[in-house]
Each structure stands twice: as C-alpha cells, then as structure tokens.
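Sample intake sheet
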Amino acid sequence: MPIVIVSRLNSGIARSLETGCWEPHGIPALYKLLEGFATQQTSLDVILLCKSEQDGPAFRRITEVRFETLPHRFTVVPYYRLPLPSSKLRTLYNDCLQFAHVVWRVYVARRARLVYCDRSNLVLAAICRLLGLRTVVRFLGVAHFADFLDGWPARLRSPLLFLSLKVPHSWVVCSEDGSPGRELFRTCLNRRTPARILLNGIDAPVPRAPAGAIPRVLFVGRPTTGKGAEDFLQALSRLHQRGRSFDAAMLCGGYDTRPLNEQADRLGLLGRVTFEQRVPHDQVSAHYARADIYVSLNRLGNLSNTVLEAINHGCCLVILGREAGLPTDAATARILPEDAALRVARQNVIEDLTAILERLIDDPEQIRLRQERTLDLRDNLLRSWTERIDEEVRRIRWIAR
C-alpha cells in the first residue's frame, strides 16, 4: 500500500531535517499525520518541495533524510533557480523540474497507489490523478483560493489551479479555520470529489498558571500583516500610552522577529512585549497556560489551531469579527457563540482592539468570567489530536487499500 506525501517544505519541519532530530513545530496537522501513520506501523515516502529561494536554504540538492523515531523516508527537493526577470517564469521552471521528479518517484520508482498533496501542490495532485493514481488533497484552510468565489475573472487569472480543483480527486480534506472552505468546495470542486472539513485537534492542556498582578496577552502566528501582527503592536502601544499595565508575548512560528523588535522599540514597548521566534511544540502549551487573554486577528479566518489551543487552555478570547455579507469567518460565527469571544471590528482594528483590551484590563473580573465561558465551550467542541488524526489516517488507508 505505497503512500506518498507531497508537501511544501515549511520551517517547522526544515529544522528537524537539518539536525536529523525529529522536533517539529509550526503546522501540527502535517507532522501529527506523519506521527499518526508511524503509530500504525505504516511507512511513507515524504517528499518536501522548496517553493521559493527562501525555503530550505540548507538544501541545494535532492537530499534524503531518515529519523530514528519515524519509519518514513524524507526527500527534500531544492528550489531550482533560473536567472530570469519574470517571477512567473522562474516559478514555472521550478515547478516543471520538481513535478517531473515527483511523478517519476511516484509513478515509476515507488509505484504508489495514493498521493497525498497539500494545497500548494494542487496542480501536481491533478497530474497524478490524470495519470490514474488516487489522490488526496489537503487544505490547511483555503486561504487565497477563496478568491475563486469572486467569479470567472479570478478563476481565469489562475486557470491551472481552478482546473485542478475540477479534477475528480479521491478525497479533499480541509481544516476548519474560519476560511470559506464549504463555499469554495460547493462551488468549485468536481461534483464527484468527496470533501470533509474538520476542526483540528488539541493536545492535553497544562494546568493554568495563577493569575498575575497584571494581565498577560498572547499572540501566536506569523509576523505578517494578514495575521494582524502590526495591528496588535499598535494596539499595545496605545494601551501603553494610556497608562495601562500589561505583559504581552508573541510566538512567531519560526519567522524572523527582528522587524517586530524594531517596531516595538519605535513604539516604546521594549520590556512590555517578548518575542519568541521558535518554540518547540511541547513548550507552546505553557505559554497558553500563562496567558489571560488570547488575541487572533487573522484576516483569512479565526478558527485556526492557535485559537483552538487558546480555548483548550481557558483563555479569554479576542478575535477578529466577521465582515457582513462575506463568507470568511461564517463558520467561526456559527461555532463560537457571541458570548464566547469578543469580536474586533474589521473596519477599525487598532482602535477597537485597544478599547476591548482596555476594558478587560480595567475589569479583571470580566477576564475571569470569559475564561469560564471558554472552558465550558471546550468540553463540547474539541477533541484530541489522536482522535482527529486517527480519522484522517483511517480514511487515507481505506482509499489506498
């Protein structure tokens, strides 16, 4: 039952590949899946593709890696550079060489029965399906694929991606992160493609730390505009200017924190905010357990794994609200009741977030009450990563049988 996993190389796994020691962080849906297959004594061929010059700078040629703790064979395929002025031509050149390697590996060398691709390799999944292989496509939320909901102009700008959705894949599975997956799949998937949207799992929570003298505010995510990192710092700056006391932490998922440090310095926040570039997964829970308030400002959806972990640890939730009439965060509105999370207006993020945090800091009892509501929600909403991954592994094995 040969199964091949094809994914973009991400920073959470790249570090482990460089050191030869399996200590992943970042995207749990991928590495938990690899660990789930290992638990069931199923070995995989895992092919990780560098999609840009910034991906995997340590890998300049095709490199195979093995880990003592996993039965899988990992292969890193480098980014193939070509000195062309057009970024589209450079991407096309890289994709053609990488796809040729994967197709040869899958179809000839390994004679795989099933290829599991992440969303960045959707076109490759379509090629494999047209060659007669069974394909599973994994979306970690639909992100910018949601643009296809705007109609044909957006689809014609990326015709290969859109047509790749129309190929009848064996299964499409998507994390429920607040992005409009249901709407996209109902509108753009082949009618014969079964699809499932699932909440991510959670790890066992660590006991909450006793409340401190001043509230602690936590932000977890890439330090990008789309994730709201700059808006978060601007709101903290206004709180500081208004004389409010707080501690804050930003966990940045392996990304460079120097720009944030420089911004915090300009805003007078050094000493009030700590930045963590890379935190091992088994240590992330301790940050949630110490946090009184968790803030999520993701413009693409606010049901990501970071929000679920904040619920799991009983944090007071502050999340970006839904924009009326748009599908983003429709699932969030359905799953998280109004009294379970304070909503920040999308039209005025910095000022509204500042006002919400100011009210909470001035009234610690409100923080405590909202933490209780979050814990009530946890008991009815969440399930462990073991349960979540077991469901996905069973379905993949059934398709590949």
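Comment: DSSP finds 15 helices and 14 strands in the chain. Residues 216-381 form a domain with the Rossmann fold fold (CATH 3.40.50.2000).
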